[in-house]
Design a protein that fits this description.
single chain, 251 residues, alpha/beta, TIM Barrel, eight-stranded parallel β-barrel, 10 helices, 8 strands, globular
Length: 251
């Protein structure tokens, strides 16, 4: 295993540059629509492709990843909702620990079970402190994890949680309001967390237009993730990518 993708993420952060990631849910795509999406991602200079979801009920994760690798040079990072969502054909895997909740299974329990298989996969493993933020509507993650999200107006809790994740050795902090969130994470919370940690910050959930993506990057997010909005309107890829990459350099 190597850490080429993580080192790229860190280098981008040190340079003050923002990255754009498109989230692909294997349950919501087919070969033809995926092909069109990948063409658009290439034209838009998308930085990363995240593959996964809270629930992947189909059995073609491998097929989706292999199609992406065949058609696109964009790095593929798995965003697993369960330990079974692992494909050795990807480039890296976000090894998520739900640090915003108190469910031991999602803090460490499932990792113990999956560790041998994950190690054997040969994937680049990126330990990630995963924080679910209240987006104004119940999310699949909250339901499955039986854990309450961090309230959207409690920035101090988010800051302390992210700091704890970093000091416990996490390589990334991922703040997520959930797919189709009614209220995306506020710029104030993003700014507070970004200023409190030194590792890269990933933000997703409820980002449905270029302006919000731009503001998230300006507030301190290093990687902006969009999935649900693009599923509804793929033409947004170019606009959001341009917005993310136009955020002024911040050190």
């Amino acid at each position: 295993m190597n850490d080429l993708i993580y080192q790229t993420i860190v280098s981008q952060k040190k340079a003050g540059k923002k990255s754009f990631a498109v989230l692909i849910d294997p349950d919501k795509t087919d070969e033809e629509s995926l092909s069109r999406l990948l063409q658009l991602c290439s034209l838009a200079k998308v930085d990363y492709l995240l593959v996964g979801g809270s629930l992947v009920v189909s059995n073609h994760l491998d097929a989706v990843v292999k199609q992406i690798k065949k058609q696109s040079p964009i790095p593929v990072i798995l965003f697993p909702g369960t330990p079974s969502q692992v494909s050795r054909h990807a480039d890296a895997l976000l090894y998520l620990s739900l640090i915003s909740g108190r469910n031991p299974e999602l803090l460490i329990g499932q990792h113990v079970i999956s560790a041998p298989f994950v190690r054997q996969s040969g994937l680049e493993i990126i330990s990630t402190g995963y924080m679910v933020i209240d987006g104004g509507a119940p999310t699949t993650v909250s339901y499955i994890s039986n854990a309450s999200p961090i309230p959207g107006n409690k920035g101090e809790i988010a800051i302390c949680t992210a700091m704890a994740g970093e000091m416990l050795g996490m390589k990334l902090i991922y703040m997520d309001a959930g797919s189709g969130a009614e209220k995306p994470i506020s710029e104030d919370m993003i700014n507070g967390v970004s200023n409190a940690i030194h590792i890269p910050l990933v933000v997703g959930g409820g980002i449905c237009d270029p302006e919000k993506a731009y503001l998230n990057g300006k507030a301190g997010a290093d990687i902006i993730v969009v999935g649900n909005a693009i599923e509804k309107d793929q033409s947004l890829i170019m606009e959001i990518s341009d917005a993310v990459h136009s955020v002024p350099v911040r050190f």
